[in-house]
Amino acid sequence: MVISIQEDFAQGVFDVVTGHVEQLSGRAPKSLEQVLTVLSDSAQNPVL
Description:
This protein has helices at 2-11, 20-25, 32-44. It starts with a helix and ends with a helix. 0% of the residues are buried. The chain is mainly α. The chain has one domain (2-44). The chain has 3 helices and no strands.
């Protein structure tokens, strides 16, 4: 069972895109890459 779930993840079975984030927050969702870039930039240039 666990192996089949892992295989499903690897095959993208759970990659479901909905509009819920934008609908609830009023903003378009960001990719992980976008979030990490913002965090990296803010860590390198902290606002004091």
